[in-house]
Amino acid sequence: MNSIQFDQICWLLLAFLLCFAGSLLLCGLARKLFPTFRSGEHKPGTHRTDMPTSSGRAIKTVELPLVGGPAFTIAIVGSGISAGYILHLNQNQWNLLLIALGATIGYAMVGFLDDWRKVYSNQGLSESAKFAGVFLVSVAAAVCYFFLFSAGQESYSLWKDLPILGRLICSSSVAIDQPCRVVFPQLAYFGWFIFLVLLVGFTGTATAVSVDFSDGFDGLSGGLVVSAAIALALAITGRLSDLGTHPEGIVLELLALVCAGGVLGFLPWCWPSSWAARRSGIVKRRARIIMGDSGALALGGLLAIIALFSRNEILLLTTIGGVFVLEALSVIVSTRVLTPFYRRRLRILRFENKKEFVPHTEFPLPFLAAPLHHHFDLLGWDRKRLVYCAWTLGAIFAGLSVLISVDTISWQRYLARFLGFVLMGVIWSSGTWSKCYFVGKQSIAGRNRHRRLALYYGYPLSIMGINLYHHVESIEASEDVIETPAEELALWQRMTIFDARAMLGLYCYRAGYYPAAMAQWSRIPERNRKLRPEIVILLNEVDNRLALEKQETQPMRRDQLRARIEENKQPIFTGNLPPADMPNPYEPISEEEMSTGNIDAPWKTLVPDNKAERDQG
């Protein structure tokens, strides 16, 4: 390594540290200056599919200031421009740097507009408007790259080697590993321009939106972006040795490092914790700000620009961004493909004769909820553990991508790609493994009789001592409430969460634990309860019974007594002694009551007519 390369690496590392410090400082300053810039958006519907919205269990949401994104975006842009002067970039390299940073600002502005509307209009941009804005920014970056950067008018592998597409974007025969220069007014010139615009437009939009999808928990998307940015930086290091052939190398390396540094400065302000809105009083939330859509779209767009300009978009979409791909696919497949298709074509035979609306939670979707991280949240995973697992998964994908980019042996590179696809397939199929629940008996060491019934998810299997299921909760009823062989056979059978709740509530009802039965049935959303009319009848019966028990055990206030007397015009109690909760009838009457005559009607018969009778009493 010569001295020039060593100096460049030192300056790049300095830019990374400068961006980290600037982001850390700006995030703290933004939190102090804009503490009320919080989202007021309310999305209708249940926060959890197994919890109702009208049962008095409203989930309190705690929004944090949406200032992390603008803060670290300013740090990234400022550090990038400062490093550009320090590294003495030429005009061609400056063009590339300004295109990338300008696109980052454009993505952030689209997200900031969405955040602004959430704060002041209580509703963000529509999906079509957000997608259109991100797509236009990507298209503008592609046009500028084509006309303002020297390598913008070069088609390259894999695209130029495809049978049909290659003829449209390359007009000459070149080696497989060499780019193809297009010249005006050849057909390939216009073909490559159109293809480049579409490639950057769709890749930039998909990556930015995918990072936005993954921004669901504190620190989740931030840690994933750090792994992806470092992986891209390592994949680009080979271009630093030959800046004459690859003048974009040092610029893209700088962008990847400042991207990682900016997010690392933000993470201390948004560190993950086990906090959740539905149990906010149990665990303290460590995060103080969140990045918002402005930060998520800016980071996703910047990752896409770095990958596209370094010609690693295939690596980004298949390996580096494996977690982002899974998050985006879970949304597209569940909400945009399968659910509309099932609405029109699917026939659920058990509900075929019912007129009630069949909610999407009864469809055979791959996950309980989308994006993917919400599926595991509904399963009851600790959020901090979930985020740490996602970070680990992102680091594994990043490691595989580095092996692919630096390994010169073909079979090893294909093996790394194969392992990446296998890992993605395992994670995707884990939704099917875990989305089904079952009711079983809780095994307790040293206790074989009167085992309690419990709710589990997963498979009722164990392999080599490893359980393929997870215990969710236990109920008050024991196995003694099971009366028929059919009910015994229904145990350990995988079913939907709503069927499992209905079964557990029935067993609690049979055992006489009415509040527990009501708690189980109330967790079934109203639309799902309509599909189970017998549960609705039992729920109403339990509700009325609990209300009567509460009314019988509660003392009756004086105004209630007065209202009932005025309504019935007859005594409300009989016998010689009044109820214990009523006032003492022998308590002396104040002079004010005697002078004004304001004596309660129910007690007039208890007031002595003369002093002798009063003394006798």
TrEMBL record:
Top-rank taxon: Bacteria
Keyword RNA-binding: no
Region (Disordered): 572-617
Record key words, sorted: Membrane, Transferase, Transmembrane, Transmembrane helix
Main location: membrane
Keyword Transmembrane: yes
Membrane disposition: Multi-pass membrane protein
Residues passing through the membrane, by range: 12-30, 64-87, 93-113, 134-152, 189-213, 220-238, 250-269, 290-309, 315-338, 386-408, 414-433, 454-472
Name of this chain's protein: Uncharacterized protein
